[in-house]
Every structure is written in structure tokens, then in C-alpha cells.
Amino acid sequence: MINRLKRLNILQIISTILLTISFILVLCNVYNSNNLFWLCLGLNMGGYLLFTTKWSNEGKTWYSKIDNKYNKNLTRKPSETIFFMLVAYYILICIVVIADIFIDNFMNESIMALYVIAILCNYLGLVVVDKTMNEVVSLIETSGKGKVERKKKDGK
């Protein structure tokens, strides 16, 4: 669990904590806490974007057959999954903002759903990155190619 949290960036951690605090304030009907919630949600969106740009890069596995061919690239599908989740997250926020133009107080009524979506997207992003990281590490350990690279650097 601790290794999983190390993959989050500072903006994601701070915005998730502030998002939870502002969500509790909204539930307690504290004056003007809706604006704080939307600010924290915007920060969380930015943090998730940074997370996506960092972890959705297609990495090297030291297998030339896997790395060179797009269809066989081990990290292609997880990268696309994280990107799809980012786009879906942003589109849902945009739909709520556009629906608020036509329906009064729609944003205020959908705060609970937006909070759940924000937490779910952040969690699922971590799960996808962990699963991919474990697959790449096990592939490197079974092939021994990563160990060869480390021995050359150490001079052994």
C-alpha cells in the first residue's frame, strides 16, 4: 500500500485530502463550501493529469520484440486505459457544468457523485499502474535482462 501511494504526485495527495475535507463541509452545509469543493476538484483534475502524463508513457522492457512492435508493447494497453479514464473523468465534469446551465443547482446536487468519481478514478489509476509495474518487473526478473544492465553499471 505504501509503494502504491508513492506513485501519487504531491498535487494529487493534497487535492484528495482537501477534496475530502471540502466534501465533509458540503455535507455539513457550511457556507460557501461548494466553491471550495469545486476548487479542490479542479486541483484533483490537474493532479490526475500529471499522474497520467508520468505513468502512461510506454516504457521499455528490454525485449526488442516487445518494445519495437506497437501491438506487442506490454505497456500500451494500460497507457490507453489510464488515458481513457482521464478523458472520461474530464467529460463527466464538463457534462455536469453544462447541465447546470439548463438545470438549476445541478452542480450542487451532483457533488456526492463527483466526489465518488474523483476518488474512483485516482484509485483505478493506481491499480492499473501497479498491475503493469508488477508485470514488467516479473518479466525483467524472469528474463534476467534487467540484472545484466545493472551488473554492467556496477562494473561487475
Structure description:
This protein is 80% helix and 0% strand. The chain has 8 helices and no strands. It has helices at 2-6, 10-27, 33-55, 64-68, 76-102, 106-109, 111-143, 145-154. Helix 2 (10-27) runs antiparallel to helix 3. The longest helix has 33 residues, at 111-143.
Summarize the structure.
The chain is mainly alpha-helical. The chain contains eight helices and no strands. α2 (10-27) runs antiparallel to α7 (111-143) and α3 (33-55) runs parallel beside α7 (111-143).
The radius of gyration is 20 Å
User: What is the 3D form?
Assistant: elongated
User: How many E strands?
Assistant: 0
Helix and strand content put the structural class at mainly alpha
Cα distance, first to last residue?
34 Å
The biggest sheet, with number of strands, parallel, antiparallel or mixed sense and barrel status, is: none
